[in-house]
Amino acid sequence: MVIDDEADFLETIVKRLKKRKLDAVGVGSGEEGLKMIENRSFDVIILDVRMPGMDGIETLKEIKRKNPLTEVIMLTGHASVESGMQGMQLGAFDYVIKPADIEELIEKVNQAGERKALHEEKIRKDEH
Amino acid sequence: MTITPHSRQSKIYMFVVSALVPALAAVSIVTGGSVLVALLSIAVGFVVFYSMRSLVKEVSRAHEQKCFLDEQLIQSQKLAAIGELSAGIAHEINNPLAIMAQEIEWARYQFDGKEPLDINTAELGDSLGEIARQVERCREITHKLLDFARKKDPLIQGVDVNRLIEDMARLVEKEASQKNIRIIREYRKDLPTLHTDAPLLRQVVLNLLNNAAYAVGENGNITIGTRTPEEGMTELAISDTGCGIPQKELGKIFDPFFTTKPPGKGTGLGLSICHSIIVRLGGRIMVESQPGKGAVFTIRLPNAHKPGK
Predict the structure, then answer these.
(1) How much is the mean pLDDT over chain A?
(2) What is the largest CA-CA distance in chain A?
(3) What is the complex's ipTM, to 2 decimals?
């Protein structure tokens, strides 16, 4: 899932991710994103840091509270070190500065997905 | 017993001398010297041998004692750190508690013997807002502490270290360049893939970069580099031209709650979290500094992950 308030950007990125055979959906705000994860589980969420309403850090907190295994890649237009440190501490997988190179972003999505799979495998092993 | 270079050297001397004397004796017999002289030199040889041996024993005993005392010193420093830790927590949490107590007092005063309509709700709202803010502050402290204490096993993936550092450098670069801080890259090309927990390492690198920028303040350089110090290891170094760290503080900078920032500006947990992350990743983090000339933080990680303590 991609969460970003810029409609144009959202549309393009979802289209490009789909083209790469990644099952992607886009929503325009943190609130909508949180509603989405109520019904569906996501492997990776790409999340814009600066959004009106609920901002990226708040949304990240909620996502991690509701579903700690979902990996979150933060997307930031203005490179703020403060929010970067906060985000990493809250368990974000990575920080990517806009405009992001699509190849790089896909690479990171794959790594984040791999990490989630590793995590799930580990939990399965620990349970046995 | 540990053998120091010093005592090893004296052992070698001991054997050389004690071997030399009988050899000289043999030579003197062969060359026609008297048997008495030969016997005398053998006796001298034994005396020298025994006195040397007791000397070496004495030295190594002294060394053992020193090691023991060193260990005790480290232990007591650790205990002092724990003491400081609890004092730190108490201090960090006491301040918000004091503010909350004051706000509650004020809110009570607003109620005191008044008719409901006379109560100043704006004042009450302010008090409640302040209390909520202070609760949030306490929560942040406890969260960071939990983070600190949580021994979650790292998730190991193959990582391109140069890439990882570069991403974090870019995040810091914009703010840094506004303060005329230049970031110099000295990446070693073709580094082998590092198997580690990427988000944890990112957290450490970002923290160190942020500290470096803070230490420089304005006008200066931050140099980031990667190296292969030995086969199977990767080293990353972040150095700055900032204010540096005084000698007496170098031993404490990884302690929880140790901070030189003004109250409220830092919890003093940043570097201690970095330290515990790197240990968990099976590596080491080191610091060198000359006051006034900046500091160098070096992280050494095994390419194949070995879990740390």
Answers:
(1) 89
(2) 47
(3) 0.88
Residue ranges of chain A whose CB lies within 8 Å of a chain B CB: 76, 78-81, 84-85, 88-89, 91-97, 111, 114-115, 118-119, 122
Contact: B198, A85; criterion CB under 8 Å: no
d(CA A52, CA A55): 6
Q: Is the pTM of this model over 0.90?
A: no
Which H or E run includes B299? strand B294-302
Q: What is the mean pLDDT of chain B?
A: 83
pLDDT of residue B235: 95
Task: Tell me the pLDDT tens digit for each residue of B148-184.
Answer: 555 567 889 999 999 999 999 999 998 899 999 999 9
Judged by CB atoms closer than 8 Å, whether chains meet at A122 and B153 is answered as yes
- CA dihedral sign of residues B46, B51, B57, B59: negative
Please state, for a pLDDT cut of 90, what percent of chain B lies above it: 38
Q: Two tokens at B161?
A: 């270290």
Residue B257 phi/psi, 5° resolution? 70, 5
- pLDDT tens across B224-279, in order? 999 999 889 999 999 999 988 888 888 888 877 777 776 656 666 788 889 888 98
Q: pLDDT tens, B111-135? A: 887 888 888 888 889 999 999 999 9
| Cβ partners under 8 Å of residue A50, min gap 6 | A56, A76, A77, A78
Q: Would you say B37 and B28 are in contact if contact means Cβ atoms under 8 Å apart?
A: yes
The pLDDT of residue A67? 85
Q: Cis omega before residue A99 (within 30°)?
A: yes
Contacts of B162 (CB under 8 A, 6+ apart): B187, B188, B189, B191, B226
What pairing do the DSSP bridges indicate for beta strands B157-159 and B181-186?
unpaired
Cα distance from A81 to chain B (closest Cα, Å)?
6
CA dihedral A25, A26, A30, A32 (to 10 degrees): -70
Contact B170 A97 (CB under 8 A): yes
Nearest-CA distance from A128 to chain B in Å? 17
Mapped onto helix, strand or coil, the DSSP state of residue B225 is strand
- Cβ contacts of residue B108 below 8 Å, gap of 6+? none
Tokens of B107: 């809110």
